[in-house]
């Protein structure tokens, strides 16, 4: 039976074999000049590719891209008229573009995958369908950039290959622009996952350098970190690659901790859901068994990495606003220091609908296109992932009864109830038991499923577990309970505040759901 540790060790072994990883950031140059005298290799209309600086920085090996023929890049093109059977475009064929019957009104979406994947992946197909289904997208075109022939091991070779695929895709976009006589490519949107995110960056850079065209938008879905972290902007996706670059970080931690995604903010807006490194549901949902295949191991440890494209897919038609808030750090966000969508802590929806709010903030002078904006949010552990956020301020009563009862150790759960009697999911203020003292004030950020309206009252329950080795949890002569003076909930999405209290200042007794309402606060001592 595998556990998480063995899965992580297996992943590390796989990556070492793929990457030829070693402990140095210096490129391993050949022993003699005659072994590899090329520093540049050219591929006809797609240009030349160097192996000199900066392509040597923070990379244990360095490759040229393989030839276009070897990768056999395919551009499967879908519209509402042909959802099931795509029209196949080629980067260097103008005739195929002319005969594809593309609608010049657009928008145009380019979707691509990462290492070890291909355009046939279900998430790409689902995303293409969702984009075509958007209201008002009758003229939309979705192009799936399938470079599976170049996404295979070793990893360093795949890293090199995306430079050429980016140039090829830029050439295709220019052909579409030219043949359809478009005034610009503002409504061209490139969406790439992992290595595919940096591929989008190369495409955007090439369009500017060669054709003086600038993509309207690039969305990076957990852009790959190995070979890209701490590199210069030419080497990786950067906000200069399009008019708007948004990034969702879902696995931003070191490779030796099973991390694949880059941690640096590299877009105009960088979203860090759940802190951007690990995602709820990924640690506990999967289990590995002895004899699990290589793909199963990668899927197990890649859950956090893949969650970025799941978030973006859901954001196209979200169940709630999918809001994220600007804050100085994730820790400050969790501590409830950024709870109001204002000029200091502005809010932007994560995913597909982010550009509109960003432009409004830009027009108001609140954001600068030459700087990064980092935003934080919480999600659920399963679909739908979207949640609404509340700052919860809990005051433990300091009355005579509370002090006489003394400190308590346990967990508090809350359920929010709206005006239509719709109830949120159960949410614990802390995952583990916490020690509460009379007079203590606790501030937390929580996220719950949206009921459609802000709450009008709260159901609170006290969970108490005695621990033989912790005398603070012993309750021999009195019932486990906690005296709560009040609970204040401030909504980010609804911009509302509500303060609720227990009826007649009664304690919340263990395992007995207690209704707390605003009208009960008149009894506060």
How would you describe what is shown here?
With 525 residues, the chain is α+β, with helices and mostly antiparallel strands. The chain folds into two domains: 6-280, Rossmann fold (3-Layer(aba) Sandwich), CATH 3.40.50.1820; 388-523, Sandwich (Lipoxygenase-1). Helix content is 24%, strand content 24%. It has helices spanning 4-19, 68-71, 94-98, 122-133, 155-179, 195-211, 282-285, 294-301, 303-316, 330-334, 354-363, 400-405, and strands spanning 40-42, 48-50, 74-78, 87-89, 108-112, 141-146, 188-193, 215-221, 242-248, 269-273, 323-326, 347-349, 373-377, 388-396, 408-418, 427-428, 434-436, 441-448, 455-463, 481-482, 484-491, 497-502, 508-509, 514-517. The strands form four sheets. An eleven-stranded mixed β-sheet has the order 4-3-6-5-7-8-9-10-13-11-12, with helices on both faces. Strands 14, 15, 16, 17, 18, 19, 21, 22 and 24 form a nine-stranded antiparallel β-sheet that branches. A hairpin with a 5-residue loop joins strand 21 (484-491) and strand 22. It is elongated and about 85 Å long. The termini are far apart. 43% of the residues are buried.
Short summary:
The chain is an alpha+beta fold and 525 residues long. An eleven-stranded mixed β-sheet has the order 4-3-6-5-7-8-9-10-13-11-12, sandwiched between helices. Strands 14, 15, 16, 17, 18, 19, 21, 22 and 24 form a nine-stranded antiparallel β-sheet that branches. It has twelve helices and 24 strands.
């Amino acid at each position: 039976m595998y556990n998480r540790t063995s899965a992580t060790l297996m992943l590390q072994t796989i990556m070492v074999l793929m990457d030829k990883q070693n402990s140095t950031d210096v490129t391993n140059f050949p022993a003699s000049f005659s072994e590899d005298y090329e520093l540049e290799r050219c591929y006809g209309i797609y240009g030349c590719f160097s192996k000199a600086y900066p392509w040597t920085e923070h990379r244990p090996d360095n490759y040229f891209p393989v030839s276009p023929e070897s990768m056999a890049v395919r551009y499967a093109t879908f519209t509402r008229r042909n959802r099931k059977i795509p029209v196949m475009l080629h980067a260097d064929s103008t005739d195929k573009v002319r005969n594809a019957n593309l609608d010049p009104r657009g928008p145009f979406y380019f979707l691509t995958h990462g290492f070890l994947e291909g355009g046939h992946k279900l998430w790409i197909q689902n995303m293409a369908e969702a984009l075509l289904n958007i209201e008002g997208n009758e003229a939309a075109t979705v192009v799936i950039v399938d470079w599976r022939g170049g996404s295979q091991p070793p990893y360093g070779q795949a890293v090199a290959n995306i430079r050429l695929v980016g140039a090829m895709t830029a050439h295709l976009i220019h052909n579409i622009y030219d043949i359809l006589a478009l005034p610009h490519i503002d409504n061209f949107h490139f969406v790439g996952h992992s290595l595919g995110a940096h591929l989008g960056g190369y495409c955007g850079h090439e369009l500017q350098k060669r054709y003086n065209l600038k993509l309207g938008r690039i969305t990076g879905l957990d852009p790959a970190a190995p070979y890209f972290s701490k590199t210069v902007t030419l080497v990786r996706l950067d906000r200069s690659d399009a008019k708007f670059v948004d990034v969702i970080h879902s696995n931003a931690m070191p490779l030796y901790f099973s991390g694949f995604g880059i941690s640096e903010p590299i877009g105009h807006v960088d979203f860090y859901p759940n802190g951007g490194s690990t995602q709820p549901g990924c640690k506990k949902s999967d289990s590995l068994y002895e004899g699990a295949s290589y793909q199963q191991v990668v899927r197990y440890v890649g859950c956090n990495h893949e969650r970025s494209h799941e978030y973006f897919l859901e954001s196209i038609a979200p169940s709630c606003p999918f809001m994220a808030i600007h804050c100085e750090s994730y820790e400050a966000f969790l501590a409830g220091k950024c709870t109001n969508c204002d000029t200091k802590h502005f809010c932007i929806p994560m995913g597909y609908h982010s550009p509109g709010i960003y432009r409004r903030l830009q027009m108001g002078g609140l954001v600068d296109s030459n700087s990064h904006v980092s935003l934080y949010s919480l999600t659920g552990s399963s679909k739908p992932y979207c949640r609404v956020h509340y700052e919860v301020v809990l005051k433990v009563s300091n009355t005579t009864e509370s002090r006489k009862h003394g400190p308590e150790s346990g967990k508090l759960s809350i359920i929010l109830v709206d005006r239509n009697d719709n109830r949120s999911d159960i949410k614990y203020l802390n995952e583990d038991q916490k020690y509460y003292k009379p007079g203590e004030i606790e501030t937390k950020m929580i996220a719950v499923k949206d009921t459609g309206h802000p709450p009008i009252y709260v159901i609170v329950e006290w969970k108490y577990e005695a621990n033989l080795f912790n005398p603070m949890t012993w309750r021999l002569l009195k019932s486990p309970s906690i005296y709560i003076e009040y609970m204040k909930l401030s909504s980010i999405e609804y911009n509302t505040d509500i303060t609720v209290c227990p009826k007649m200042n009664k304690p919340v007794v263990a395992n007995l759901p207690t209704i707390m309402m605003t009208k009960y606060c008149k009894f506060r001592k």
